[in-house]
Structure to design on (416 residues):
């Protein structure tokens, strides 16, 4: 509280919203990733979806990589859910104490791997579709798929 | 210019995690952590009431700080144990009847929407949802057309929990003033993230939480109520923190926004 007043809300907003914009731009530039924020004026909250991957799964994978995010909940947004039917989304919300490098790193984790181009042609419900998301998610999911194998 | 390195050095969590969940709960700064744990320790050492007495000045300063944060006055502020209770204290104090209407938006928070339905069931008031415009924010032309003399309350989540939208609060405030409705702004996600100015926004009630962008501890919330709106509200709980017995069978409300609070607090 006092910290916020000392720093000044204009300076806080300037930095937090800029980091949000950076993340939104980076995420929406990634193949297979879309962002879903509405309105003419945006803030530091950024919502995104990775094609064919449940938001909770991506959020959990980011958590395992020490990146804290949350997911939106349909019941928290009943009228918006009625309109868009889009929740849960992955919700990123940086603040002034985050760095540009942290934003880069978080976005990079959602980038498709260069050797995973085949994933584009994979049926959505196949485990190897996961390869688009995160290297460690790919490992864990593939090993889970192997365990479930023959 | 903000010294981000110094601010990070004061934030223990920055060394361990990339924390992009400030809309959930932000990382505490070391001075906040010290103040909280110091007070808990003091309570353990000398007793809770005794520790509260020693912290009296700091607690009074919190009211002034919130007033400064929103651009209001200390006596228009009351503290709560979370933003939902603050919101409830504001909402359930709005007198509603069959002839009244509540207007809200498509991006309204789920708990608020449920409270509107409950109020409609209890009082017969009508709840109308203002459509979005093509940008996905509240359609101001539609709001202006729907806001009439029946409109008792316009309730809006400033920044929804569902994404990066910022509702055009000041424009909504102008429409609320024009139709004479009370305007309640839920600033849970905007307090501590964006500048707030209740005079420019033109709201009558504003609620917020400590744990999100304000970087306070969980279990803290606040309500600001415009002094001029007090006489249009009927506080929903009379208790020793919010009212004083008149010695007969009546009572008087506490000064300012304290009439919406409770004596027991965290």
């Amino acid at each position: 509280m006092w910290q916020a007043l000392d720093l000044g809300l204009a300076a806080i907003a300037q930095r937090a919203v800029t980091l949000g914009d950076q993340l939104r731009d980076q995420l929406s530039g990634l193949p297979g990733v879309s962002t879903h924020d509405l309105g003419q004026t945006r803030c530091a909250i950024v919502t995104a979806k990775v094609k064919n991957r449940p938001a909770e799964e991506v959020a959990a994978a980011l958590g395992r990589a020490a990146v804290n995010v949350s997911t939106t909940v349909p019941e928290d947004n009943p009228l918006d859910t009625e309109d868009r039917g889009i929740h849960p989304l992955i919700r990123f919300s940086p603040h002034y104490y985050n760095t540009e490098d942290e934003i880069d790193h978080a976005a990079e984790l959602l980038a498709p791997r260069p050797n995973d181009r085949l994933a584009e042609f994979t049926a959505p419900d196949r485990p190897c579709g996961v390869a688009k998301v995160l290297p460690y998610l790919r490992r864990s999911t593939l090993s889970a798929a192997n365990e479930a194998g023959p | 210019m903000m010294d981000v390195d110094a601010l990070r050095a004061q934030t223990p969590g920055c060394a361990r995690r990339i924390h992009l969940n400030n809309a959930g709960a932000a990382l505490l700064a070391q001075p906040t952590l010290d103040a909280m744990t110091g007070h808990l320790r003091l309570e353990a050492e000398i007793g809770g009431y005794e520790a509260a007495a020693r912290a009296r000045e700091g607690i009074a300063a919190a009211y002034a700080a919130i007033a400064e944060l929103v651009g209001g006055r200390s006596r228009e502020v009351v503290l709560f144990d979370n933003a939902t209770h603050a919101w409830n204290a504001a909402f359930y104090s709005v007198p509603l009847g069959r002839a009244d209407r509540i207007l809200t938006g498509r991006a309204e928070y789920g708990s608020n929407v449920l409270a509107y339905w409950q109020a409609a069931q209890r009082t017969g008031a009508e709840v109308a949802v203002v459509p979005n415009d093509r940008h996905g924010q509240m359609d101001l032309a539609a709001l202006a057309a729907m806001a009439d003399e029946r409109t008792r309350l316009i309730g809006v989540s400033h920044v929804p929990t569902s994404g990066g939208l910022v509702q055009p609060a000041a424009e909504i405030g102008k429409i609320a003033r024009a139709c004479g409705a009370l305007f309640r702004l839920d600033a849970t996600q905007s307090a501590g993230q964006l500048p707030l100015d209740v005079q420019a926004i033109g709201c009558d009630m504003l609620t917020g939480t400590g744990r999100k962008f304000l970087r306070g501890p969980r279990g803290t919330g606040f309500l600001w109520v415009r002094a001029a709106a007090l006489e249009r509200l009927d506080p929903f709980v009379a208790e020793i923190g919010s009212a004083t017995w008149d010695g007969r069978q009546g009572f008087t409300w506490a000064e300012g926004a304290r009439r919406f609070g409770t004596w027991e607090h965290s």
About this structure: Chain A has six helices and five strands.
